[in-house]
Amino acid sequence: MADVKKYSTKPFDCWGKAKELRMDIYQKLAQKASGEKDWLVASGGTEGLIGLPAGLGEDYVFFGGEPYGASTGAMGKSEEMMGHCEVKGYARDLCGYCRNYLGSIFGDQFSFGGKYPHPDFYFQLHFCDTHGKWYQPAAKYTDKPYFVIDMGAPYRWPKWNESEKRRKNKFNYLVTQMHDSIEWMENITGRTYDDERLADAVYNEIMSTSKWAKCCELNKNVPAPMDEKSMYAFYIVHVLRRHTKEAVEFFDMLYDELQDRIAKDIAGVEYERFRMVHNSQPPWYALHMFRYMEKFGVVCVGSQYDFMLSGGWDYYYDENGIFHIRAGEPPADLKDRIKTRDGALKAMTSWILDYGLTIRSFRFPMIERRNIDVAIARDWNCQGAMMHLNRGCEGWAVGQLEARRALVEAGFPVLTYEGNVADPREFDESRTFAHINAFMESQRLKKLAN
Amino acid sequence: MGAIEKFQEIYENRHAYARDWNSRHPDGKILGCFCTYVPEEIPYAAGILPVRILGSHEIEDDSSPHLFGMFCPFCRDVLAQGLQGRYEYLDGISDGNCCMHLLQAYEAWGLNVKPQPKILRVDTPSSTQNRHSRTYLRDELECFKEDLEEWVGKEITDEALDYAVEVYNENRRLMKQIYELRKADDPPITGLESMYMVASSQMMDKAEHNKILLEALEQVKERKLDRETGTRLMTVGSENDDVEFLSMIEQKMVLPATVVTDDHCTGTRYFWQEIIPEEDRLQAIATRYIARTPCPCKDFPELRRFNNLLKLAKEWRVEGVLLMQQKFCDPHEIDIPSLKDFFEENGFPTYFLELDVTVPLGQFSTRVEAFIESLTLDII
Predict the structure, then answer these.
(1) How do the domains of chain A map onto residue ranges?
(2) By the 8 A CB rule, do B19 and B89 touch?
(3) If I label A17, which of A263, B145, B289, B365 is the partner at 20 to 30 A Cα–Cα?
């Protein structure tokens, strides 16, 4: 204990702002459900093109299925929502978020209180097998229109015969679908689409996802200015509203604060003698797991999941052929590029196809994806890895065991635990804590304090 | 041995067939296909033998270090075949960007199976419903064709593509003609035999399979089976080559039953639609793969598969539908409650079964028999 360095730490100044920006969405959705205010609500996958409907008007609110499913889990309401889903005959091994979301529809309940906020339409970007399917029963049950943009063919990794011709084809496929989606939204809402709003949304999305990636890069610092649990509170801003000006301002503010913390040697947690990379979403109802690990002086400093969920990451190979990741850099002439609808859609397409590494990883789940974990572990100065074998999200679980093998081969011990991102019935807390204890013992890490 | 029995022979000795093909075509290459969205006509035109990789329905633990246990039993079974060295004769592997489960098995195969085969993926669109998917797939097929040409070191000509399309279309037509005969009051071919027929077509040179099909068609026209047809069933699900399960239904239950049609990728979904030739060969092929009865994982935003299934159920005078779901298969799982309602609204009773690599035959036979009994009860 005596030779373990204790860092100073303090709450984040922008913590309250992050919470406010998140709750603002759910409050608006509650207003929609109660009839207090008729926001224009689109619902769908949150990794997707949430900025596209922004051209419909300033009253647009996006209702992301995944963060809602996660919040439902964190608030301890999964069993109730999933129960509604299971009664209808849906399998218990379906995506945990999907079951929470569909359960809310079938039970007409909103986890934040009140009734399910019926969206005006469903709007999905498909790259996970569950994505396109999820909103089929939702649209049918609520009798709302549904549009899907197919993103199931992202760019390949360089070693996979990815010719320029193939990339161009994929690029055009995505751009043309985005154009179609705008026509479709105009038809079903009866509104005229505003290209200036689209330009703003595209600009904000690119800037905020890039800035979040830069914030994550600052976590390479020892001590890390953010711990994983805090990162969950921040990343949600770009998950829910990265197309907004508020998101850009927030990440600028966070970046400045992180730099300040680094300058002053302020850490995310007091003791940081063993740094870990986390893999997959956490079980949202058991985040105290991270607090327990702090007792051993152990901190998780990032993951593919919270780094990359909304894009914004580039990659490169160094002179030795070693794979690294880095924040995607917005084009210098971005503002010029997005002056027209076509220009804005092309800028968005480039950003997603080049820097949406999560999307690429879902469809190319092993051969290169496993190197992302190794890159984070190595370049973020970790000593080990923690992997949630996640029964509740097939997208984040694809490739997990090959990632584990790659980490072990690269010299990083891996603590695995099994659970479900949203379904607490599939999480054995005492066994997980026993796994943590055994792992700490194997690394000769004793508790610093109770 | 009759032609029908030859299908079973090939199915059971698929590896011996492939090795024999290799010895007869020493310069030929064999391409393992992970799903039925690989446009086989193109490699076939290059002189390559495309073979479907199916599991063996045996308990295994080889895949455990590579695939998390929550992924479908089929993808784990498939990977196990590679890790056990059963497909050592494959020169390359291909996947049609189907589901993430099989994509994992595909990439894990590429990483871990030695000697490492050539990896030749086709990035088919995930949704076959949007209006740009045909154009997109056509151009992707051009890239796939170039990958293959580079691999085999020769150009794939229009003539070769025409020949491949002709052979594949003939294969589809002949299998469809045999399926037509199953509409009879007493079908001359069982569901299990039909499965052997379709699955063996996925493992053979189609030109050779066509010869057996022609023989089989003649034999089946005159055939009378020494069995009672009983209740006419349809099976619906993902891949299904579970011999034990199908023989349980058709041979081992007290109440007789026959599977008269299906919606599986080892059944109708594989071969039902032909390629309609056009000047742009690749566009013709792309159009067929977009317009085929979709796998649920490519069937959105609308549920277009359902009407195809209903048509089959009506025309083959199905009395009950078995909804068979591979455990952990999300696209099928999400469809099943809606599909169940859809069938029942249209007057077709359904029964749900969840499948793993092996199935609990005792329990399943009791359950299926109870379902059949419920279909045959007289109304008092």
Answers:
(1) 15-442
(2) yes
(3) A263
